[in-house]
Amino acid sequence: MIAKYSALLEPVVNALQSIALDVVKASQYVKRILQLLKSHRDNPERVTDEIIKDATVVAEKVGLEEDITSMPRIVGKQRHRSNHPAESPSEFWKRSLIIPYSDSVITSLETRFAEENTPSFALSKLHPAQMQTMSVENLTETCETIAQFYNLPNIKIEVELWQQFWHNKPNSTDQTVVDILKEAKTFFPDTEKALKILIALPCTTCTVERSFSSLRRLKTWLRSTMSENRLNGLAMMSVHRKLIHGNLQDFNNKVV
């Protein structure tokens, strides 16, 4: 079962490690996974039958089919596990493994990506894909959180016009945060600031871990006495090396 759900979560984990991923896409990925996991949780019998079927095939190859088709013994006093009431192996594994594991994964994802835990997900409500499912009152209430946390008092005034601006625009839900930022310039100054913050926010710890890896390559024992400005410059060159290689001549003219 762990292998099955690991294969399900692996594409999402890889996507969350992308450099170009923003908070809106991260939230959408997690919501899709949660919907699928909840559908499995609502129908545990089907999931249990599939897992037992796959396990039986593997068990037959190694001569352990009897262990799969039978239930563990029940004793009066258990120390390491509970006595789950069941009349069949399928029901036993459903109650002892499938349901607890599904609940654990769902609860973990909901807790880790809960919108009330971080104001950054409140910023994602400024995206047209999020605004279409919200009323003006709910959007205004969300912007009050943004205004207080990021010191953007005028965003509460701009948000209603911002929602109306995207109401009749075609394909607005498919645009990235970078695309909608262009529309916020001039007429929506506080909204523009909020979108810039949203773009700069890292969705996961991968961005930080990449900088740590770069720092480990740079700050060796031979460079342990370098100044802060030199270390910052080398770190920026390492992190954004593609930009430097793409404009190598201009970089050499400015530095050399």
From TrEMBL:
Q: Where are its TM segments located?
A: none
Pfam families per record: Dimer_Tnp_hAT
GO terms of molecular function? protein dimerization activity
Q: Which segments constitute the HAT C-terminal dimerisation domain?
A: 166-242
Taxonomic lineage: Eukaryota, Metazoa, Ecdysozoa, Arthropoda, Hexapoda
**Entry's InterPro entries?**
HATC_C_dom, IFN-induced_PKR_regulator
Q: What protein am I looking at?
A: (apollo) hypothetical protein
Q: Which organism is it from?
A: Parnassius apollo
